[in-house]
């Protein structure tokens, strides 16, 4: 129960960041970041009496209904919560906070707005959820045209960018392209940050002592291989394990103390599934 509450809290923080990015950086500067928010921006420009939050709620309801019949009901509770939570938070900001541009410099709006948007979406995606909208449209395209999901999402964003260029001018359309490209990079980096751990290979003659320290003190499992030096022809044991940065610092200090001749390789493991890490069934 605690874990579920934590996940929904993290998702809430994520879609609030997205709302702030759109309402205080994108909308006042007529810049679109793609997706359903971009479509809502274009409609709101032509029909200003319709708040973006309400537009997004309506579009999400329509898209979820269409997707249910076209691609099946494969949408989890977290995605439903994130999609409608984003729409509601956008409406609350519009209704009660009267948003205005925090900067009128388009490039600053793109950089700061996309930074917040990418971090917010990355946080939501890291909890195995999404904000609906673009994902649903992409799934519908995937169903009919059999394109891969990445291509479908690019196609949806391309349509939004074109609509933005027609509505707000070519300049704003070009800014929208920058937003979409930068957004994808930031989302990937945020997700990597959530899932990133270190994989460590330790070549040592004191494997029993180091293995015991990893299991008892760091509280991690490990695997021990037998290796043979290509140059020295000497037998050595190799300990392989995966851990977070804090645990790595402890292990590195211990190895320096216990075996100065050890050879250690550390590399990034961007996603680890299984015991002690992310559930393999939800990966």
From TrEMBL:
The DUF2179 domain, residue ranges: 220-274
Membrane topology: Multi-pass membrane protein
Domain of life, source organism: Bacteria
Name under which the protein is recorded: DUF2179 domain-containing protein
Keywords from the named record: Cell membrane, Membrane, Transmembrane, Transmembrane helix
Entry's localization field: Cell membrane
Cellular-component GO terms for this entry: plasma membrane
Species the sequence originates in: Clostridium fungisolvens
PANTHER family cross-referenced by the UniProt entry: UPF0750 MEMBRANE PROTEIN YITE, UPF0750 MEMBRANE PROTEIN YITT-RELATED
Transmembrane segments: 7-25, 79-97, 106-125, 158-182
């Amino acid at each position: 129960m605690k874990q579920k509450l934590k996940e929904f809290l993290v998702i809430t923080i994520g879609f609030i960041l997205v709302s702030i990015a759109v309402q205080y950086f994108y909308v006042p500067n007529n810049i679109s970041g793609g997706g359903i928010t971009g479509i809502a921006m274009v409609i709101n420009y032509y029909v200003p009496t319709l708040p973006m939050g309400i537009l997004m709620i309506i579009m999400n309801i329509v898209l979820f209904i269409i997707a249910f019949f076209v691609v099946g009901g494969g949408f989890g509770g977290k995605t439903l919560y994130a999609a409608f939570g984003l729409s509601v938070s956008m409406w609350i900001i519009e209704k009660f906070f009267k948003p205005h541009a925090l900067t009128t410099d388009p490039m600053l709006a793109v950089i700061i707005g996309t930074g917040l948007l990418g971090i917010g979406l990355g946080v939501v995606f890291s909890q195995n959820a999404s904000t609906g909208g673009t994902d649903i449209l992409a799934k519908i395209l995937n169903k009919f045209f059999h394109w891969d999901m990445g291509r479908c999402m690019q196609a949806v964003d391309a349509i939004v960018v074109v609509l933005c260029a027609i509505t707000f001018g070519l300049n704003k359309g070009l800014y929208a392209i920058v937003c979409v490209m930068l957004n994808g990079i930031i989302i990937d980096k945020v997700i990597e940050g959530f899932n990133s751990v270190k994989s460590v290979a330790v070549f040592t003659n004191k494997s029993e002592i180091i293995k015991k320290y990893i299991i008892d003190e760091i509280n991690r499992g490990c695997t021990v291989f037998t290796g043979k030096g290509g140059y020295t022809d000497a037998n050595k044991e190799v300990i392989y394990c995966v851990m977070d940065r804090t645990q790595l610092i402890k292990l590195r200090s211990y190895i320096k103390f216990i075996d100065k001749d050890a050879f250690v390789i550390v590399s990034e493991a961007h996603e680890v599934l299984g015991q002690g890490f992310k559930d393999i069934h939800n990966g």
